[in-house]
Amino acid sequence: MLQFKLVLLGDSSVGKSSIVNRFVKDSFDEFRESTIGAAFLSQTVTIKDDDQDVTVKFEIWDTAGQERYKSLAPMYYRNSNAALVVYDITQADSLEKAQSWVHELKNKVDDNNLVIYLVGNKVDLTKDDEEKRVVDRDVAEKYAQENGLLFNEVSAKTGEGIQQIFQTIGENLYEVRKKENTTNNSNMANRAHGQVDIQLPRPSTNDSTSCCS
Amino acid sequence: MSDLLKEFDPLSQDSNTQEIPEPNTNTTENSKSNTNDNDNNSITSETKSSLTKKPDDRQDEYFFDFQVFINDFKEPNAEPLVKYTRSFLNNFVTQKALWTASEQQKLINDFKLFIFEKFNQFKPFNEFNKVKLRNSQEGIEKLIMGKLYPLCFSPELLRKMPIDKLDEEHKNDILEDGFLQEKIDEYAFIELDNLDVNKKISLKLGKFLKLAGKELNKINQFKAPRDKMVCILNTCKIIFSILKHSKLEQDGADSFIPLLIYVIIHGNIQHLISNIRFIERFRYERFLKSEDQYYLSSLQGATNFIANLSKKDLAISNDEVYEKTYNDNQIRVNEKKKQEIELGKKGNVQNEDIAITNDQEYSYNPIDEIASSMVSMFNDFFIGQPATTTKIEPQGKPTLTTVATETSTSMPPNTNISSESMTNDRKIRKAVKKMEEQEQQETLEALYDMFPDLPRELIEDICIAKKYRTGVCVDTLLNLYE
Fold first, then answer.
1. What are the start and end residues of every segment in region (Disordered) (chain B) (predicted)?
2. Is B97 an 8 Å CB contact of chain A?
3. What chain A residue is nearest to B96 in terms of C-alpha separation?
4. Under an 8 A CB cutoff, do B256 and A39 touch?
5. A56, A118, A153, B317: least CB-packed within 10 angstroms?
6. Which domains are present in chain B?
7. CB pair distance less than 8 Å for B12 and A201
8. How many angstroms away from the CA of A65 is the closest CA of chain B?
9. Is it the case that residue A101 has pLDDT exceeding 60?
10. Which pLDDT score is estimated for B379?
């Protein structure tokens, strides 16, 4: 099973938590409840590689969307494999905020393979009343293309397009991981613990109580 | 060789008796550990429960039982593992008086990797399934961190030496603890409204938040990184109970983070930064991930937010009122500072003759005490002397003994009169029991307060059934309430 960390970014009123709640509950895979609470959720998707089923597990890290908590975000997106940046198609400034998240991710996350998915939420509101839409699909889509992002409009309320987001991210990450595996196998080893180069004598079994006396 | 070592690490005492005792010479010790076992269960039950995930979540449920590990470790076949551990601890304390935090992290991690690998070679460990192996790995971590706590937890180091003698990293922990505390004092008046908390949360829930703060405060009562982590998770669990009660749990981090910040500001939690760093450095990397990592990061994020807090970060409805509240608080803070400086002067004098009585020590660090006395039994086992109660007390408190060593001039370590130690041992247990009862009483009172409409007997019954695990109790009571 492959496991990926996905961070969830977006203003507090855009419904980013609803997207994840919808995904976690609607998935065909067994419902995985988190043990502590809804800020950290995990869920799997199954993707096809030729005839093989591959299980991809997402660990979904929610962030506080209020502007005042923006400074906490780096704590959450470091070491992420994917980011879901959400805006609300009925709120003009929410796309700008989403774009500033994208900008920050591109500058701060040191991983060229980071998959960023831009999501316009609340399409259900425009179904009866197209007037409610204030962010053009074309504008957002063009921005996404120019910046190499995945993109779609969805509705957390009806579930439209939700599963597909995670399916697509899973497939993308799987491809990335596959490529990485073929190019270099031992790239991850020994990266932790900084540059400290220090060792104790190897523990031994005949190291009588040593010391003094 | 340094006196520090002699007292600090009983492994190094008395080098003629280093053989591992025959199993049957351990009878006194075993019977002792059994009596302790009961106590220990009640204490770690909280710890256990939080790792016990929903059954359908994972087939292999992890558990943690330190006594089980100790018993495995004591098996004659595992003797080499014991010797490795002892060799490591010995090297750690003898090779250098003070390692930097990064060095400590590296050395301790290296040892874990080494000994976990060695598990494959020795019975009973090489026959264990994943779940029991995990328990053993947790056990090793708890054992060595319990022993090395006085050297690795920054506030403990500060009890042994002045701050300017510390390495940069440990020193920064202390400074940041102080800085965070200053900020918390400066903004002690902050209310939920200032933090963008969803309006649906009623202020009556302040009591719940107090309980969450109390839970987080327990972090200083444990030495093992895992136990500290469990305190954090329990705190978060209580916060989510509050959110659930207000039908806001689906809101995720938007609702959770402000409440966490509130709990930190009002919880009066000591050494929070040092504790976070300690967990980050010494929790085995593979265990610190997923949910644990998320909530640790959130706590870190929340402390960063507080450390950088200024007026512009707050939601303020009435500027005039805010200014007045802020200024009134500043006056209080300045008064408090003045008092502290005066106390500090006196405090320094006291420090010179470190006359920490045992009782004070227990109240400083009560809950982990039983675990410590178990670790100390383990020392007897290391030393290879037939276990008697004599040896249990002194090494049970690494903190106390090290502090003592610094001041008293190298007394031979084993001069304790056994009867005195026996009394001490009994005293510890009595003290621990008292602490526990007090804890339980406090939890009960807090819950009565929170659920005034529920019959008290019911609350008490639930507490007993749930072994006073605060998170679970609140959860259960909330469900009943609705």
1. 1-56
2. no
3. A200
4. yes
5. B317
6. 4-27+57-162+351-416 (no CATH), 166-315 (1.20.1050.80), 427-482 (1.10.8)
7. no
8. 6
9. yes
10. 53
- In this predicted structure, what is the pLDDT of residue B423? 64
Chain B segment 98-117 residues within 8 A of A by beta carbon are: 102-103, 105-107, 109-111, 114-115
* CA quadruple B288, B294, B295, B298: dihedral sign: positive
Cα B433 from Cα B36, distance rounded (Å): 11
Contact check, Cβ <8 Å, B249/A37: yes
Specify the pLDDT at position A206. Answer: 73
Residue A38, phi then psi, degrees to nearest 5 = -80, 5
Structure ipTM: 0.89
Tell me the per-residue pLDDT of B338-385, one tens digit each, with 9 for 90 and over. Answer: 888 888 766 554 444 433 333 333 334 444 545 555 555 555 444 433
Integer-rounded Cα Rg, in Å, for chain A is 21
What integer pLDDT is reported at residue B308 of this predicted model?
Answer: 94
CB B88 within 8 Å of CB A203:
yes
**Is the per-residue pLDDT at A209 higher than 60?**
no
Residue B337 has a pLDDT of: 87
Q: How confident is the model at residue B204 (pLDDT cuts 50, 70, 90)?
A: low
| Orientation angle between helical segments B369-383 and B130-152, nearest 10 degrees | 100
Length of chain B measured in residues: 482
Q: Collapsing DSSP states into helix, strand and coil, what is residue B16?
A: helix
- pTM to 2 decimal places: 0.77
Q: Is B14 in Cβ contact with A203 (below 8 Å)?
A: no
Interface A–B counts its CB contacts (< 8 A) at 174
Q: What is the mean pLDDT of residues B27-45?
A: 36
CATH architecture of A2-179: 3-Layer(aba) Sandwich (3.40)
**Closest CA–CA distance from residue A123 to any residue of chain B (Å):** 20
Q: Give the one of B14, B291, B383 whose C-beta lies nearest to A34's C-beta.
A: B291
Chain B residues closer than 8 Å to A84 by CB: none
Best residue in B12, B14, B87 for a mutation probing chain A (most A CBs within 10 Å): B87
Chain segment A138-166, per-residue pLDDT in tens: 999 999 999 999 999 999 989 899 999 99
CB within 8 Å: A17 and B106:
no
Q: Do A21 and B250 touch (CB under 8 A)?
A: yes
Contact check, Cβ <8 Å, B252/A20: yes
Contact (CB, 8 A) for B72 and B124: yes
Locus of tokens 């409009």: A153
| B85-92 average pLDDT score | 91
